[in-house]
Amino acid sequence: MSKKYYLTTAIDYVNGHPHLGHAYEKVVTDAIARVHQSFGESTFFLTGLDEHGQKVQKAATEQGLNPQDYCDDLAASWKVFVDQLGLCHDDFVRTTQDRHREVVQKLLMRLHEEGHFYKATYQGYYSAKQETFLTEKDRGEDGAFDPLYGEVVELLEDNYYFKLGRHQQWLIEYIESHPDFVTPEYRR
Questions:
Q1: Which of 43, 82, 117, 131 has its CA 20 to 30 A from that of 141?
Q2: Which domain does 50 fall in, by range?
Q3: pLDDT tens-digit series, residues 96-136
Q4: With helix as H, strand as E and coil as C, how does the chain read?
């Protein structure tokens, strides 16, 4: 039986049109998929769009559109972009598709029912521009956050967390007994 490889690009935010940076990542992933295929190995190559988030909401509002209409308009240009790159991808997913929502909801409900989540308060510094939380290590010597982060606000919010520690030993054993499960080796 041949090895099976699952490859994915970033699932890009659809807050604007695709550009050269998006092409680079997709072409490199495509090359990796084609190398594996040339060795007779089975691949599944996924690319697509993340149509949720503050950046998408903001961009839609600035265009005077509701978020779904905004995403639908841009998704068409992204699909053309991916097709023009000539990728050997197997699927192009949109996070607003019914098939995506149904699978995610089913999985999350099952995990919730089995007690795999807990609720806790998170406090931290947040960059809406980068859509990421920052730590004290992200501050410069002067104590300020780099301007590349844009406006940084301190947030206090309740979140749900996955109880990963419950699965730690099983994951370690699985990865150690299946060395090709995570590649390259230094990522294990």
A1: 131
A2: 4-105
A3: 999 999 999 999 999 999 999 999 999 999 998 888 999 99
A4: CCCEEEEEEEEEECCCCCCHHHHHHHHHHHHHHHHHHHCCCEEEEEEEEECCCHHHHHHHHHCCCCHHHHHHHHHHHHHHHHHHHCCCCCEEEECCCHHHHHHHHHHHHHHHHCCCEEEEEEEEEEECCCCEEECHHHECCCCCECHHHCCEEEEEEEEEEECHHHHHHHHHHHHHHCCCCCCCHHHC
